[in-house]
Amino acid sequence: MDSSPSSPSPPPVNWEALDSLVIEFAKSENLIEDSSPPASPSSSSPSSCSSSSYQYRVLILQIRRLLQFGDIDSAIDLLHLHVPSVLDDHRLLFRLQKQKFIELLRKGTEEDQNSAINCLRTALAPSALDAYPEAYEEFKHVMLVFLYDKDDQTSPVVNEWSERRLFELAGLMTSVLRAHLQAYDPLFSMTIRYLISIHKGFCFRQGISSPITDLTVRLLLEERDLPATPQEGLFEAPPFDEVDIQALAHAVELTRQGAVDSLKFAKGDLFQAFQNEVCRMRLDFTMLDELIHEYCVYRGIVTSAPPNPSCKYNTLLLYYYYYYYYYYYIDCFELTIASAQGPQISESESSLSEVRTESIKLGDTDMDSPEEQRYPCGPTTTHEDCSTSGGIIYKHKQPPKLLQTRGLSDRNKRKRWRGRQQQVSEISSTTTTIDANKEEKYEIMLAIRELTTKGMAAEVVDEINDMDPAFFEQNHLLFFQLKRIEFLKLVNSGDHTRALKVACSYLGPLATKDPSLLKPLKETLLALLTPNDKFVPQSLPFHTLSTTLQVEIGRRLGIEEPQLMKIMRATLHTHNEWFKLQMCKDRFEGLLKIDALKEVNSPLLTDCLSKSSNEICNHNSSSQGTATSSSRMQEDGSSLTQVSSTGDTTTDETAILKVMEFLALPRADAIHLLGQYNGNAETVIQQIFA
User: Fold this and answer.
1) Element (H, E) at 641
2) Predicted TM-score of the model (pTM)
3) What gap in Å lies between CA 564 and CA 569, rounded to an integer?
4) Considering only CA atoms, which of 455, 528, 573 is closest in space to residue 208?
């Protein structure tokens, strides 16, 4: 779908901020191997707190699973062992005992029936007396299960027999334990829940067919855990600020009373109440792990595939693997290399029978098994791997320069993906394996991104031209940005002659072809007028440019950008649009680091980066994203046209809150109504109820 001329350009996403959130999530969930030494139990450092939170989350998940499978006794035993104070809440204890009674009868044996009667006498009846006012009536009602079969769908206790009660109880206990132990999910999992929730609501209200529906529906489930409710002593809590009540209610889609109850449970702490409510939203963590792993591989955070444990010489042999692979990639049948001789593996390491290490030499053309020597620790390939998928081919018959300088050190910095451990049954994680051919393409893509991040614009241009001379003809905005960086670096070094040559040869002609580049060109040339002002690398969007370039280079190599990047683009954009409609700032974006994800320190060329990003995202777009006549969204969710909101932003805040409270309306609707009645809240309410 082509971008609409009137569609607003979304700001670039701060992918480094997302990297930080993703790494923190992976460490918190023990998905990657962390080389940092473990903290002592008495330590109060962030790492020890994170480890403690992880253990608590595992405990909560174990209790949740036990309750879902009807093993109430084991769940109560764990509670007694680890968090006995939770059972001081007689309401929870009564619900647990009632469900235990049902599950014993569900088993159907005479022995279990006798156990159920004993549970009724010794545990359920006593707890019903002081649990809550309605508990004794519930106790008498549940005794009817003796008379009605569990398969009788017309019985008055059909809901008591329902297995859904197990999942409701499990969700309730999860909410209670999470808040009690302060064992909240990692920040990123809360952020993505919140963003997807807003995205869904925005698309629904604006009549937009979301282009990432297939991802969001599978990732964020419709069901929510039951909320934890305050104990009786908190029912007389002081009144809360109406601003806090409305902010919480509309952020996580609660009724006003639901928001008040949530604030009571959190003892008036708005942000803790918000975390409690966000964590009630249920994620498919298996899918989230897959998205995180795909993103981590793409960004070079983790290795692309689990290492082969049987290979003792991974690092040394990988050197030969790279060298021979790139030579092989260019010409499968020419194995003539300069006569320089590489290092050999010592005799003490010659026990690896598959590899004839004594014959590995850089100039050796006499190998018995060339594929085995090229891929000593990985899969073998055939001559079909010589194809240059994606349209990129090197002009020179030697390893790419950027990979010669890159070496193995950058690979060794990457962490190894561990996956979700099997502390709890039925928890598993799948990882993506990458074949040798594709792994090398990843290395090319990551090396180019790294050079761009370091501001080595001239080297990046040379390497890309070596790979694909036609690349910049189709990506002139990226070429302009790289040449602009080269120009500023030359000015910074005092070489004005070469800087002007770059401007005359490249920047000027590009701006002539694309008038939208004239403004950034003029801003760039101003650097010549201030020779004493040194070029500051942080003032340029290296990271944003490097990611934009990575996506396009990856696509040319046949590597699609991770689905997580598509989700973040779409949801951050709709987050912007939603709060424009609400005419207010998001109270919770700082807590969830959403503001950091939107913050791109690039005073120049931001518009160009957005335009370039849109071109990349629309490269293979289809008609997947559809919309109503009043609004329309691109495939990646980054382009949107809608009926503009109007309203008096100077309307009294008290009047806005009053209309929101009495009519249970979103902020934007309340502002629109007040605008129609001169900002008088009483008149609005009277007209609605008239």
Assistant:
1) strand 640-641
2) 0.77
3) 9
4) 573
